[in-house]
Specification:
Blueprint: E1 6-10, E2 15-17, H1 21-29, E3 38-43, E4 50-56, E5 62-68, E6 73-79, H2 82-94, H3 103-111
Antiparallel strand pairs: 1-2, 1-3, 3-4, 4-5, 5-6
Helix pairs in contact: 1-2
């Protein structure tokens, strides 16, 4: 069974359906400069309208990209705190549109953040 809303995939093949903040923290913690340099989070869709990615920077820290075509958003930032990255991505994803999720569910998730 696929993710209800979205999935996270890392370069080394790890996959988590609907990852929690803690799961994102673990996936980002596992990144390195050799064979596992990024994590991509996106809806479980054939043509996802949004995505977020976290990539290891050579000079240390992480590059975070957030893109949502439905809201004309494209942000690129850098950070060093894995905890902050996981929390910020969880909050950002809670406000995304997901196929099959009603407007009420979106509103409830946005208000709980």
């Amino acid at each position: 069974m696929g993710a209800q809303y979205y999935g996270a995939d890392s370069e080394n093949g790890d996959h988590i359906d609907d990852p929690s903040e803690d799961a994102l923290f673990m996936m980002i913690s596992d990144l390195n400069n050799s064979d596992n340099t990024f994590v991509v989070i996106q809806p479980d869709d054939d043509d996802p309208i949004w995505f977020a990615s976290v990539a290891v920077l050579d000079e240390g820290g992480y590059e975070i990209v957030r893109r949502d075509a439905s809201r004309n958003e494209h942000e690129v930032a850098t950070a060093t705190s894995i905890n902050d990255i996981a929390r910020d991505l969880t909050i950002w994803m809670a406000a995304r549109d997901f196929p099959g999720r009603s407007a009420r569910q979106r509103s409830e998730s946005e208000n709980s953040v």
